[in-house]
Amino acid sequence: MNPITQTQALDVPSAIIQRRSIKSFKPDPISPELLQKLVELTVAAPSSYNLQDWRIVIVQDETQKSALSAAAFNQQQIIQAPVTFVFAAEPHGERDLTTILEQGLATGAWNEQVVNYFKTAVPQFQAGLGDKRREYAIKDAMIAATHLVLAAESLGLSTNFMNGWMEDKVKEVIGAADSDLAIAVLVPVGYAAQPRLNPGRLPLSANVFVDRISQPYQN
Ligand SMILES: Cc1cc2nc3c(=O)[nH]c(=O)nc-3n(C[C@H](O)[C@H](O)[C@H](O)COP(=O)(O)O)c2cc1C
Questions:
Q1: Where does the pLDDT of residue 2 fall: very low under 50, low under 70, confident under 90, or very high at 90 and above?
Q2: Whether this model's pTM surpasses 0.90
Q3: Which of 16, 24, 153, 160 to mutate to test the pocket of ligand 1 (most atoms within 8 A of CB)?
């Protein structure tokens, strides 16, 4: 299947099975319409209290891509792929809480009681997290990144989750050097220039359990 002419989106199980970490990309650009679709599917991800504390930077400028690659130990995927999504997380983010609560009320997803509860519960919960705030914000950003990866695969593109980078350097590149922003993951997105080779997985009994960690799942 030629990914550029793929018009029928893959269903979720097919996208999950087909997805591979792609390290080599064609120079073909992603159309603005497709990019917008990817962004919308990415932020459709759930987040703790719907706070959406991810901060996503779409790096596509050639100079920015070079700087980002340098911050990622010169990994070439970033140079080759037309776009790299930088998933960052705002550990202290609750600045949009009012808008989030109003929206939930307006859509009918949350009633007055829930909204009033969240008004106090969310800041309390955030404060109670202490050192774990960063971890929680990163969880949300990682879930959004996973949405991107599967959406991209479904729409004929390929991706690579990337953890190999220096946080302070990545922050510098995206103009966040002096902020509390935590970098979660980098995801280059583009059209694969290599076959999707599957490195395989351990047997289910190695890391899936039933009820207790002592009872391996048997399929
Ligand atoms: C959180 C995370 C970080 C990763 N970081 C890198 C990376 O920096 N560079 C890279 O080439 N691959 C990276 N990978 C890709 C893994 O090597 C790859 O997912 C794994 O070998 C399984 O292959 P598959 O994705 O094709 O199933 C990362 C994957 C994950 C999930």
A1: very low
A2: yes
A3: 160
